[in-house]
Amino acid sequence: MGHRPRGGAILQPWLDAGRKPAKTVRLKLTYSFDVETLPTTESKLQLAIERPELYEITLNGQKVANKAKSHWVDPAIQTLPLKSSLLKEGLNQLTLECDYHELLPGLEAIYLLGVFGVKGARTMTALPAALDTGDWCPQGLPNYSGSVTYRVDLHFGKRRKDERVAVEFGKWAGALLGVRVNGGNLKRLGWAPYRVDITDDIKQGANTLELVVVFSRRNAFGPFYDYQPSPWWGGSEAFKHFQVCERHLVPGGLLEPPRLLRLALK
């Protein structure tokens, strides 16, 4: 279009809102994905996108209203409800069209949200009914960036007066841990040692432990094409030094089973 590449020193687009663009080009983006298991009507499908009002949106040829109903993670990422009936088994296509020009905010990632699982790079499946210990990415949650609660039912024997009871975590991947016993308060663990005392919460007989892993936004927002496991910064310059061609995710979840400890008081 004859304009200089954008960079950190450009005038932000919203400050140029009153100026008319010198030239526009018709832009069409097509996103293809496969559906192995159709989502139910309760799956609450949404399209998350910045500035949806700028686009004409269709899903498998059917028009999608571009008026936002809410937002996801950030107020700038607006959400549009999608009817699950618009999807079909096999190949699906989502298209965005607009008249593009230099005053628009630019092209950003978009997100398909809902209650479903993901297999491989772009196949929608059923949400996994349960998770094993180990990385949850290959278990159907490769792009997930929320929290997961592992529910464990156990029978606890009689406790001696001179002992304490604790849950100790081994290897795990995420941003924060939490433990709740029998529906009580959530006890949070933000740093090592990842051990929490539950003596006052556990009882003789049947108990329910809820082990919560709060994940980061890394597998939703990236950086994906940076070979550093834990990059200390992200930006256009970083990819000149660390860029790779394969999409990289980081593990999530309880990578090994936690332990229930009975500790004698000294």
CATH superfamily of the largest domain, called what?
Galactose-binding domain-like
How many helices does DSSP assign? 2
Helix and strand succession?
EEEEEEEEEEEEEEEEEHHEE
The domain count comes to 2
If you had to describe this structure to a student in words, what would you say it looks like?
This protein has 266 residues and is mainly beta. It has two domains: 13-125, Sandwich (Jelly Rolls); 131-266, Jelly Rolls, CATH 2.60.120.260. The protein is built from two helices and 19 strands. Strand 9 and strand 10 (123-125) form a beta hairpin. The chain is elongated.
Briefly characterize the structure.
The protein has 266 residues and is mainly β.
Key words describing this protein structure:
single chain, 266 residues, mainly beta, Jelly Rolls, 2 domains, 6-stranded mixed β-sheet, 4-stranded antiparallel β-sheet, 2 helices
Task: Summarize the helices and strands and which ones pair or pack.
Elements: E1 25-35, E2 46-50, E3 56-59, E4 62-64, E5 70-72, E6 74-81, E7 90-100, E8 111-113, E9 117-119, E10 123-125, E11 147-156, E12 163-168, E13 172-173, E14 176-181, E15 187-189, E16 195-197, E17 205-214, H1 218-221, H2 238-242, E18 253-254, E19 259-264
Parallel strand pairs: 1-10
Antiparallel strand pairs: 1-7, 2-6, 2-8, 3-4, 3-7, 5-6, 9-10, 11-17, 12-16, 12-19, 13-18, 14-15, 14-17
